[in-house]
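Q: How do we represent a protein-ligand complex in a form that can be generated token by token?
A: Start from the inputs.
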Amino acid sequence: MMPRTLACVVVVSVAFCELVGLSSAPAADATAQTPAPVIILKLDDLKFTSASAPIAPRWLQLADYIQKNKLKASIGIICSSLENGNAAYVQWIKDLHERQIIEFWFHGYDHATHKVDGVDYSEFTGRPYDEQKAHFDKALKLAEDKLGFPLHAFGPPGGGTKGTCDANTVQVMADVPAMKVWLYPQPMDDVGRELEAKGKVTILDRVWAVNIENPLFVPSLAKLQAGYEKSAAQRKYFVLQGHPTHWTDEGWDQFTKICDYLTAKGCVFMTPSEYVQSMSKKSAGDRVPPSGK
Ligand SMILES: [Zn+2]
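Then emit the structure tokens for the protein with zinc ion bound:
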């Protein structure tokens, strides 16, 4: 039997709801009140193609699409391309940077694999600290000199058979002043947490099931959607990786459908640094919503 006092509370609360017109409103959905995760598009492998067509057509299409749809994205530069790229190549990057549509980030100096004892390693594995740091320093100086602005985010290039980074890379990220954001090649781990705790670098980690491409180079709305529905309520952001120059026309079509789907879900697209800045604003108590889209 219900205790008398509790019964009174129930009656009063029902009456209150009717009074303010809440009883006819749809039941509150907890997920509807949580902002949709921010989307950070991490698009890899920008390089110079040729003097007559310095930018691959898919990159031109991508930049146009991002701009027309008022989205944001980020593109990883293979920085040796700034040595051999012509003025038109450099200017394309500078224009997009100035319009604040796309953030360019450091995707290695040469993205090349190298052999140690017959084993293939990616650019930032199988190398001592000094060599890894030299690749960062050379590439970041090239960017400053040619583009006139610094790169603040890093995404390690793939290749080889031993992953994309190691303990030396972590130390370099801790030491190079310009490096503020790591587009982490995996879900967060203890190594990442430790680096982040030092306060200089913010790690933006991955959720394997929520990506543009699945498998590699093949964009799939159906697979992204399945992953998104499962984990969106637990995430503040998703970093979605893609390699536009590897996409077929069908792949491109799937990519645009993914963007449409996420926009319909209420997701805001931001660049990595913009997202990191929005995080610090929030922690400073600023209630103004981030303006990125
Ligand atoms: Zn790459």
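The pocket of zinc ion is lined by residues 44-45, 107, 111, 157-158 (CB under 6 Å). Residues 31-283 form a domain with the TIM Barrel fold (CATH 3.20.20.370).
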